[in-house]
Amino acid sequence: MSSSGNGSAIGPSIPGPIEIPESVQNGGLHLQQLQFRTQDSVYLPGGKRSLSGISIRAFSLGIVLGIASFATALLAYYEIALWRAPFFIATLALFHYLEFDSTARFNPPDAKVSSFLLSANGSAYNIAHTAALTELLVRSWLYSDFKPSWLRLPFEIPTLFPPGSSAILVTIGIALIITGQYVRTAAMAEAGENFNHIVQSTKKDDHVLVTSGVYAFCRHPSYFGFFWWGLGTQLVLGNAICFPAYAVVLWKFFANRIQSASSVKLRITCRADGVYRRGAIPRPILWPRLRSISAANISAHSFHSMII
Question: Does the N terminus or the C terminus of the chain have fewer Cβ atoms within 10 A?
């Protein structure tokens, strides 16, 4: 049976010979560079799904997590209060790694370099974490033997937490971190390909309203998880300034994010509005000021609730 460039009626199609441009034959262009022009270029260095970019970030986060975890255990063993600093760094490293890992596992088509959320949240996100770590370091320095004897503060450092409650606060903080991370990851897993780190302005044909799993108990589990995760980190750090600041900033940020979704003319099919109006899927709202959200817009909120 003979075969041609277009293949036979039975069996696989056999492609014809590859035509190499004259410029390549003359050494004007390397053959491998031709492949860069294909749609697979997104996986090449610099692409939004760059395999090298993903591997470097995952490797770096793993190194940071390992070193920070070791430093935390070492400092805690010798009862040095600064163990909280590497613990905070290790928690951040694990969080950002899990953001990409959860996306890659449960929503592979959307997995890309930015899924790590290392820079996608803007400068305010990085400033907040820097301020939290700075407060811890400055406070530790002011109460240490390394503080100059001539240094006198014109004011007393506020004490938000009662004295002698460090162990209790650390325990509560760690519990909130674990719970918040679990709820957020569970939300990403339950939403699957309906999850997206970017607020969507249009509905895709394969997107559906998620009402099972953690969504059966919480309308915005992704927000809920990160809100309490963030407060948990500040409890562990013992930050009397950043703790209320985190609470206010995160509250307003997520409240505005949810409210802004109501302005998007987006409706999810499958009679989602009717399902909510009948009260068949009761779920609490985390922020009281959001109770005015109409049932007609809840489907849009649920669709938009998957972004930090």
Answer: N
| Digit-coded pLDDT (tens) for 19-71 | 545 554 555 445 455 454 556 789 999 999 999 999 999 999 999 999 999 99
What residue type is assigned to position 146 of the chain?
Answer: F
The H or E element that residue 136 is part of is: helix 123-142
285 φ, ψ (degrees, to nearest 5): -105, 130
Reference 242, options 88, 71, 119; nearest CA is 88
Give the C-alpha separation, 34 to 200, whole Å.
34
pTM (global) more than 0.70: yes
Count how many domains the chain has. Answer: 1
Whether residue 306 contacts residue 191, with contact meaning beta carbons closer than 8 Å, is answered with yes
Q: Is residue 105 part of a domain?
A: no
Would you say residue 114 lies in a domain?
no
On whether residue 117 sits in a domain, the answer given is no
| Range of the structural domain that residue 172 is part of | 160-308
Distance CA 157, CA 166 (A): 16
Q: In this structure, what token pair is assigned to residue 38? A: 């294909």
